[in-house]
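User: I'm designing a mutation panel for Glycine cleavage system regulatory protein and want to avoid disrupting the core. Could you give me a predicted structure to guide residue selection? Please restate the sequence first so the numbering is unambiguous.

Assistant: Good idea. Sequence first, for numbering, then the predicted structure tokens:
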Amino acid sequence: MAAVAEVIGGHGGNWENSQLAELAGAFAGIIEVTVAPDRADALRDALSAVEGLVTVAVPAGVTTTDAIDAAPARQFAFQVLGNDHPGIVHEVSSTLSRHGVSIERMTTATRDAAMAGGRLFEATIAASVPSSVDIDGLTSALEQLAAELQVDVALLE
């Protein structure tokens, strides 16, 4: 997902709405992107070059015993809310990836801000965190990112 977000941002696109989920070890979903009309073809071509973007595959090296022997992952859910601007999804997904966290589901939307004007971006993310990942460190990294992006990040129960 970080690779897709990087391509979108690199072509001046803005990630608007999405429904994403991890299914049977593969990531699947639909993303709505806005981009200037004169950049749409270049974005489409760049996205088609992202390896594994559209694929049907069984992950190599994964066996039933690997799944049984592995320590169970913990669930981690949070919400991102702030003024909409390009790069939010890329930065959040990159931060999670650097910490070894896998996004299981993500829903995004943009909407008009009620009183302040402008557009708001909102994402709800459910992630799978390996037992080896320090949750406090991950939370701190997300809080730091929120300050940099000027968005709010709230952990969900």
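For picking mutation sites, this is relevant: The mean pLDDT is 83. Residues 74 and 136 are 13 Å apart (CA to CA).
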